[in-house]
Design a protein that fits this description.
Layout lengths: L21 H11 L2 E4 L2 H6 L14 E4 L2 H7 L1
Antiparallel strand pairs: 1-2
């Protein structure tokens, strides 16, 4: 059986968010979403990783109370 060669992965760092008014985004989300909207450093750090080796710090965190709230957040 021949060896299967996989292509090299494309690795590029994520581009930082630019020109985003985080205060306005947080205010809009709080007005529209039934749930918690967290933009503090602690919440962002807590949600920046999963069980993998990767870490991506989010702009903010939304914890919706309903499916409809999740849809609104997105």
């Amino acid at each position: 059986m021949s060896e299967v060669l996989l292509p090299e992965p494309v690795l590029r760092p994520p581009e930082p968010a630019q020109d985003i008014d985080l205060a306005a985004l947080a205010a809009d989300l709080r007005a529209e979403v039934d749930g918690e909207v967290r933009f503090d450093d602690g919440s962002r750090a807590a949600y920046s990783t999963d069980a993998s080796n990767y870490r991506q710090i989010p702009l903010g965190v939304v914890v919706p109370r309903t499916v409809e709230a999740a849809v609104s957040a997105v």
